[in-house]
Amino acid sequence: MSNSIIQxxxxxxxxxxxxxxxxxxxGSIISAxxxxxxxxxxxxxxxxxxxxxxxxxxxxxxxxFPVCExxxxxxxxxxxxxxxxxxxxxxxxxxxxxxxxxxxxxxxYAFHGRxxxxxxxxxxxLFIAVAIGMLVDIFQxxxxxxxxxxxxxxxLCSCGYDHTYKKxxxxxxxxxxxxxxxxxxxxxxxxxxxxxxxxxxxxxERDYVLKLGQHPVYSIIAMMLFAYLISLCSEADxxxxxxxxxQFTPGAIIAFLILGPMIDIKNTLMLSSSFKKGFIVKLMxxxxxxxxxxxxIVNAVINI
Length: 304
Fold this sequence. Notes:
The protein is mostly helical. The protein has helices spanning 3-37, 40-46, 51-60, 69-81, 86-99, 101-110, 115-139, 142-145, 171-202, 206-213, 218-230, 237-241, 250-262, 265-272, 277-301. It has one domain (3-301). Helix content is 73%, strand content 0%.
């Protein structure tokens, strides 16, 4: 491997990590504050009882509760246990990591002020989340989707901190524990994603990349699979996606930005801990189909 290839790889890798780090840190802190100070009961109380309004409100709640997909599934399943309908919880889990203002801001920054990328990501992501939420209400009842064996793990939070046992600890320390946990979980996926992206940009021949990336169908499938496998946090994925501008179709990039926050490997594993396999398969199928359709429509009508 030549020195120029190593140098190019290092520059791309480091630039991705450094650009994404401030947004990841800010998102982790906000997520931790919400986890400590705002309960699922509060969210459940403010959701409308009407199905359509409830699904729409749940999908838009990311503007008020900005958490990424790394934390939204545990919150979503607790909402279901507190009586929130499955369709609203699903819309919440799918939309919040996309309409999150930190995510939209990072997307705007990553794509150097291209507002249409932000609008497409936020608008299409919100539409798909609401549509899937309404479809879930048709084909799946809440109790049928949840595993009977699912039981909360006592007082031990997913961050590893026992909030009840350590009563003398301040809320500030709880926020620190949560922030540390979020940074660890998100950071390792960011580094892996930056590594793969840098490798992709420097090692694979450009002619091959352009041949795949400019195909109106194959490019979308490739980027959706990449989003699913790489398991990036939504606060960092825009920095990875922006490196593919000019090499992949706009629809492929939009599909990547929408599908990744909705479903990936780590989210699939988290879902399997409390939801039945049949429901997960149906949910994943809907997400992949609708994200592909969104990317295909973008390719058909927009030439970025």
